[in-house]
Write a structure and sequence with these properties.
A: 249 residues; Rossmann fold; two-stranded antiparallel ribbon; 13 strands; B: 315 residues; alpha/beta; five-stranded parallel beta sheet; globular; binds flavin-adenine dinucleotide
Chain lengths: 249, 315
Amino acid sequence: MKILVAIKRVVDYNVRIQIKPDGSGVMLEGVKMSINPFDEIALEEAIRLKEKGLAESITVVTVAGKQAEEQLRQALAMGADHALRVDTDQDLQPINIARVLEAIVKREAPDLILMGKQAIDDDCSQTPQMLAGLLDWPQATFVSKLELADGWVRVSREVDAGLEELSVRLPAIISADLRLNEPRYVKLPDIMKARRKPIDILTLDDLSVAMAPQLEIVKTEPPPPRKPGRKLASIEELITELKQMGVLS
Amino acid sequence: MTKLLVIAEHDGEVLNPSTARTLACARALEPEALDVAVFASEGEDIAAAAARLQGVSRVLLINHPANQHPLACVLAPQVVSLAAGYSHIFAPGTTFGRDFLPRVAALLGVPQITDIMTVRDPFTFDRPIYAGNAVTTVKAPEGKVVATVRPASFKPVEEMPQAAPVEAMHLDVQIPEHTRFEKLHSEKGDRPDLQSARIVVSGGRGVGGKEDFERIFRLADRLGAAVGASRAAVDAGVVPNELQVGQTGKIIAPEVYIAFGISGAIQHLAGIKDAGTIVAVNTDPDAPIFEVADLGLVADWKEVVEAMEKAVDEA
Ligand SMILES: Cc1cc2nc3c(=O)[nH]c(=O)nc-3n(C[C@H](O)[C@H](O)[C@H](O)COP(=O)(O)OP(=O)(O)OC[C@H]3O[C@@H](n4cnc5c(N)ncnc54)[C@H](O)[C@@H]3O)c2cc1C
């Protein structure tokens, strides 16, 4: 079985983002960047499937500029076998990322695609579902558990009502939620080794993808501030406040 | 002409309140037509409830055995087959809408807008990014507008005495066989729903284990409140995943949110920004939750819970 994992380079989840004063976006210069945490979980799951002997190879792909090779190397160090970067400096949105990935899927013919359930920068949560739609493949989003058996994957999905179990037939697309696994810590020798592994580069022209129109990003601003709060001095004071709000009646 | 189709969310029996909130967003566009589609196996009652919601022009009821459970690959081609007459297709930004609507957008060849929080004009909307730490204004290109609506940003529309017409429809689409629903585990008892409760009592790692959390449940029951939790409490197996509040859990807007033993990580705060009053109880005076709390108290959660229970008893 061949697994394809798509990853995105994003601002590290520990960073407190700064918004550019001119409203043109979020400051990215000099900010720590990482693999989107959900994508890292997707990759970890692929590696575990391979370690269990259920998969032969893992290809990791990103659609981004050259800086994202840092994240591809990280993925190789974790345990991906091949890395692929589709080169672009455009800010492609999920609909077009999905179209690029569709072209990659036609070339690579994976049996299983693992992706993160959302990117923590734009919080869109769209690309896996869109790719599934374009390929007419089954999808299982927000997955916190999966088991492979006889060409099917049985998953648990984290939905608002609780945990939903689905079975999807391969080839399929699965998007990872937080509790699917805890990604491994990468060891230094693996990082050194990953530096020498090749990264294949494709251009959008190589793939001849027809681009869909995108959303225009008009401006980016800080969220409306909440009014400043108060620290209370005692439990009694809190009880009085809660009574006034009608919480304790 | 703004003609809007909203896809209703339900559990097979009742309409989910996220539908009425999505309709509130839809009405802000002042559409010429506002239809609701109910995909179900036997959705007559659900459709009748949708028909009484304010602003609805017509309810389309698509009864089909395959619609018993909401599967994205089953819903998406049906929504696409209805799309021709509409300029906009909206769904709630819950795990229901987030799952199937991008698939619809891909089939229609248009971008999707996730989590509308404000309508500026029928093509321009505000949405949160970076766990709500920034808000971006986006404008949809020519063509159909496909979007999920952030339920916490809109008050549900009201029920009207007069009902809109319900039309039963049959759609001629192929139902894929590559996806099978197996089952749903839900621990929801008689407690109020986390996403529509007036009061939410929430606990984090600071609350401790399962037994400690029982006290949070007990307090919530006495207050008629829903229970929420941080990721740390869910990860520790103390409470089920459906209680998680935050960027990757539920985004909620109760009148009162009471956080016990929650530090206030940005991913958690993303879920409570729209709460009316945030009350935080934490032993660490420097916990970041105090930066957003309207009322903060440095104290042990157990003592506060005890005092609250006593106050309810006396009331
Ligand atoms: C991609 C990503 C997505 C995430 N999504 C979410 C999400 O949706 N929701 C979410 O909640 N988290 C999410 N997280 C996790 C988040 O970063 C935090 O790790 C988590 O919210 C911490 O939970 P906590 O506040 O319960 O625990 P901690 O941070 O450990 O805080 C525990 C608090 O309890 C206090 N405390 C201890 N004892 C007591 C006592 N006796 N009385 C009162 N207070 C006490 C402590 O002072 C401390 O402040 C996400 C993380 C990542 C990377």
